[in-house]
Amino acid sequence: MQGKGIVKFFLVVMGIVCLVQYLLILPTRKVEKAAEARADKVAMQISDPDRADAEAKLARIQYLDSMSSEDIFSIPLLKSYTYEELKRQQLAFGLDLKGGMSVVMQVDLRDYLEIMSNHSNDPTFLQALDNADEALRSEQSDYVTLFAREFQELSEGKNLASIFSRNQALRDEINFETSDAQVISLLRTRANETVDLTFKRLKDRIDKLGVVQPNITLDASRDLILVELPGIDNPERARSFLQSTAKLEFWNVYRVSDPGLLDAFVEADRRLKLMQSGDTTAIDSIPEQEMQVDTIWTASLDSLGNPTGDSTYEVVETPVQNDPFS
User: Fold this and answer.
1) 207: closest CA among 101, 68, 73, 48?
2) What is the predicted pLDDT for the residue at 190?
């Protein structure tokens, strides 16, 4: 009798779970049917079958993207749910049931080591990188460990501190007395931070892709990122998202309350009106660009990147970069 009670309990729980999943599926199914109708409408307007299929897929994706943040289901006095929230709470079917795209990505730590070495031309360093690239294809280890092993086999008494101490960001932590083990430990710590940051940025990028229930995991021991995108029907779009390069740019910005900003806009507007009317006095009144003389020194380096002392210089004139609102 006790066994029957346990069975009944689990049947009730499973029934509740099924009911909840059914309630989650109905609103999203309605949105997806509307997306299919939009796609069919777009395809009917195109005679080329291949182009019609591609445009239909794009129209479906764009419609679902536009609905991802829209409320499509609400429980009175409790909560409203968007399409994306409901899809995330549904049971994940995975690639085996739903199909999709699976990608294994590896963070390129060779570029990272080259940057940390200040792009050293040391032949031992470069050969160790090449050997680590080759070893990475067959060994289950991380790149920094493989590089350290290859460098130790080729170094012949040369230490890593002589290479990485040239980096301004590492000079406070590395000097010529720093052992190879300490240098590798520091590089591994910095590499882990880089890989973890890449993993987080990739997750943010995939969230913007609009894929429902993606699976993104990090294999920190080998610097690998596994990405599974179930149900995706536009692999080229996903590939471009995953492969695109992120760039950080800095711009000077001003606030409306900054001194001289509004006056500068008013003066610019006045001069433009004069120029459009044919008045050349607006151009004549523009002050000439102030110039400054700079001396640019160019160091002569040997094959290892060390200065030889035969430096050259050039005298050039450059515009003075004054703040127009100061």
Assistant:
1) 68
2) 87
Q: What is the CA radius of gyration of the chain?
A: 31
- pLDDT by residue (tens digit) across 225-266? 888 777 676 677 677 767 666 665 667 777 878 777 888 888
pTM: 0.52
Are 185 and 164 a contacting pair, CB within 8 Å?
A: no
Structure confidence at residue 293 (pLDDT)? 62
Averaged pLDDT, groups of 10, the chain, 326 residues long: 71 76 74 84 82 79 77 77 74 62 82 86 90 87 89 85 80 81 89 86 72 76 81 69 65 78 84 80 59 64 59 64 52
- Quick one: tokens of 122? 């040391």
Taking residue 136's Cβ as centre, other Cβ atoms within 10 Å add up to 19
What's the 3-state SS for the chain? CHHHHHHHHHHHHHHHHHHHHHHHHHHHHHHHHHHHHHHHHHHHCCCCHHHHHHHHHHHHHHHHHHHCCCEEEEECCCEEEEHHHHHHHCCCCHHHHHCEEEEEEECCHHHHHHHHCCCCCCHHHHHHHHHHHHHHCCCCCCHHHHHHHHHHHHCCCCCCHHHHCCCCCCCCCCCCCCCHHHHHHHHHHHHHHHHHHHHHHHHHHHHHHCCCCCEEEEECCCCEEEEEEECCCCHHHHHHHHHCCCCCCCCCCCCCCCCCHHHHHHHHHHHHHHHHCCCCHHHHCCCCCCEEEEEEEECCECCCCCECCCCEEEEEEEECCCCCCC
In the chain the first and final C-alpha atoms are separated, in Å, by 86
